[in-house]
Structure formats: structure tokens, C-alpha cells
Sequence to fold (330 residues):
Amino acid sequence: MKKPVGRFAPSPTGLLHLGNAWSFFLAWLAARAEGGRIILRHEDIDPARSRKEWMDAIERDLLWLGLDWDEGPDDGPHAPYRQSRSSGFYESALESLKARGFVYPCYCTRKELRTLAGAPHGAADGLGDAGAAYPGACRNLTEKERAQKEAEGRRPALRLLCPDGDTESFTDLVLGPQRLTLKECGGDFALRRSDGVWAYQLAVVVDDMRMEVTQVVRGEDILLSTPRQLLLYRFLGGTPPAFAHIPLLHDARGERLAKRHKSLSIAALREAGCSPEAVAGRLAHLAGLQERPGPVRPAALAERIGGPFPWHLLPKGRILVPDGAERIWK
Ligand code: GLU
Ligand code: ZN
Fold:
């Protein structure tokens, strides 16, 4: 068996919080327990939201937790490991899709999209929101209509033409067999925004492909992106990785942990006097990997697992982190 290649793909838009750390902890363990490798890639694709200081802070906090990587974020066999420096790769992928007629310009404004689409898809099942389903309003614009929109000064987003009725199936390591239509996942999706920023779906597939990632561990909130990414793998001729969509951490009120939970950033936990082993021990306990929440080093845990990650031990549904974790997790 080939050893897995996993990755950390943080968006450097803030401090590493416990919710991200949870995903990275499991991604790291799943690779390391089988003697695999980890790549660190900064997804600084949106220049308005990304900052170098967050990249540095994320690296510091991962290492503090005991989560290291083999490749990135600077030089290495698959450099660049920053999406802001990888435009050339996205450009070639786009060209190859365009050449086969899979790309069209969409001139819809946000407001028009809202009116066109009605309720967002996927929001109700708690497994993420693919965004409002795009009804394909710009699919069949004539050259004349396009020229007219351009003359009005509109800049188009570029969308992927998803074949009607396209259905993608895969077996998730955590959630089991999945079968979703592209329509359920939001329909024709953007490859590039109207302001020229590359879309997450294209960038993540191109990067995971070129970095030869074989195992993607991420939150189940992204589940509805996966069929879109599988279609891109097919169109671009890549082999998709195995996917593990993990349940997310929530606060005591049932809200998903996010950057706004300031007291639960890894930096805040460290400053509150929590040890990295204590935090890792709690995460391991939440993942069903140890009966008690006692301290542990991730490396020791990986060694103890010593083979394929036991995904079946993960609890189903949302996982609650108690209030005041920063005082208790010591
Ligand atoms: N940068 C993305 C995020 O932080 C990565 C998602 C993924 O793992 O594909 O949400
Ligand atoms: Zn449109």
C-alpha cells in the first residue's frame, strides 16, 4: 500500500482556532498513523482577507500543538505552496476547460443571483451550504447579449458548465457512500469571481492534484463542495483523493466554533496556560481515540494507532466543547 499524503490547507484570515486545529489534528493523525506525509499549503487566495502574519501565526500554533509537516510552505518539490503564487496553474486549468467548451461567463450580480435562486441548497440538512443554486441564467447568452453586458461595464465571473443530470458518487471515510447531483450542490459553479479572484473549488483541486494529495480530511460543512471537485478531477484528468468529512466542534450553545470564538484560538489557550498535550488529549478524547481526556502527544497517539485511522470511532453529528475550556483544559 502506498503511504497517504495529507495536507493542511488553512485560509490565513485569522488566528488558528480550535475548530481548525481539530481538522488539522485528524488530518495529521490519519497521515502519520500510516507513516504518510503532510503538506502545508496556505490558501491565501483572497488577497483582501489573507495576511502573512496569520500564516506565521498558524504555523507557530500548529507546531506548538505538535503537528508538523514535511513539505511547504516555502521551497519544496511542489512549490509554490501559497495559492496567491499559483495563478499560472489555475490559468492553465481554466484554459484546458475553456478549450473544451466547459466554461462560460456569468454576468449576474449578487442581487440578481439572490432573486433567481430562492432558498440556498443544502442549508437545511446541516451539512453545509453550497450557496444558492445557480439556475444557469447566463448559460445560453448570445454573443450579442454578452457584448451588451460588457458594454454596460459588467465584468463576468466564469462558471463551469456542469452536464445536466450529472451525479457524483464517492465513499466518504467517515460518512460512507455518498451520491449527489451537481444540481443539489449548487449547479454551475464559479471558477473565477468577477473581480478576478480564483474560486476555492478550482484552486483546491488544481493544488491537490499537482501536490499529489491522496487523503483530504476536512469539516463536513464542505461536503457539498466535494461533488463539484470530483467533476473537476474528471474534467482535468486527475485521480481524486480519499475524503474524510469530519463532524465539527461546536460551543455549548450549539454554534460551530469559528474565528469569532476568541477564547478558543490556540494562541488564547496557550496564553491561558493550557499545555499542548492537554489540548491534544482533549481532542483525542472527543475523537473517541482515548477513553479519558488526559494529556497526550500527537506523535505518541499516531504511533499507538499505527495503521489506518479508526474513523468509525468519531462521534456522529456535532461535537460540543464545554464553556470555559480555556480554564479546564490544563
Ligand atoms: N482553505 C479551505 C478552508 O479553510 C480548505 C478547505 C479544504 O480542506 O478543502 O476552508
Ligand atoms: Zn449569470
The radius of gyration is 21 Å. The CA atoms of residues 90 and 203 lie 6 Å apart. The chain has eleven helices and eleven strands.
